[in-house]
């Protein structure tokens, strides 16, 4: 009871962050809580024709892919790879064996691939290879995942969606923080053809929300940024609000308990 009492006091103290009376403070009613959104920002990088990554952009926490993959060396950001291992194990338990065929690509690699594709198609961009700087792969959070049969083919197309492995990913990848980056009904928004094999890590909370609301990363980015802008316009302060949430007193900070066995709380740093 003592711990609950002090936590309620701490929550009440959030109001002054906005410099307003409690009744005037805007209510955060977006389905994803602000701190979760703030913590996920590093995994929500948008790369497309309208949001080009710099030539020098490269994630700092790339790790070598140890999940099942075709021959070669692949890299992903650590959080994405950790989630991928869990997802591969779960898929295997359900009778689906998955393989990584492509993961992080540098700007230069994408530049070469894009121009090779243009040369093959007599200068036409057919929507299968992203423009350099617009590639989801450059974020270190995007990857191509297939079954064994499709890893043996020279090219990939939307027919893969009929296979049980693709259907498993479409139904379950959000449980591990991934979404299908280029959905079947979103080509006009993403600028890329339907790719049932291309997964993108965004974190479990955001992936669940995007899956349940059938949102592309472009749509989710527009929606969440618009909500934050509106929250600030209504008198809130998203950055200050998140900071306040991260500085709530730790109920175990003193390392001691009261007579009821609850952790003693200190609002002051020694």
How would you sum up this structure, described in words?
The protein is of the alpha+beta class and about 270 residues long. It folds into two domains: about 1-25 and about 245-270, no CATH class; about 35-225, Muramoyl-pentapeptide Carboxypeptidase, domain 2. The chain is built from ten helices and six strands, in the order H-H-E-E-H-E-H-E-H-H-E-H-E-H-H-H. The protein has a four-stranded antiparallel sheet with strand order 3-4-6-5. A two-stranded antiparallel sheet has the order 1-2.
Distance between the termini: 24 Å
Given as residue ranges, the uncertain stretches (5+ residues, pLDDT < 50) are 1-21, 251-270
Number of extended strands: 6
Counted by DSSP, the helix tally is: 10
Please state the overall shape, judged from the principal axes of the Cα atoms.
globular
CATH topology of the largest domain: Muramoyl-pentapeptide Carboxypeptidase, domain 2
User: What count of structural domains?
Assistant: 2
Estimate the helix proportion, in percent. 25-40%
Sequence of secondary-structure elements: HHEEHEHEHHEHEHHH
Q: Write down the CATH class of the largest domain.
A: Alpha Beta
- By CATH, the architecture of the largest domain is named 2-Layer Sandwich
Mean pLDDT: 86
| β-strand amount | 5-15%
Radius of gyration: 22 Å
Query: What is the subunit arrangement here?
Result: single chain
For the report, how would you describe the main beta sheet?
4 strands, antiparallel
Structural class: alpha+beta
Main-sheet strand order equals 3-4-6-5
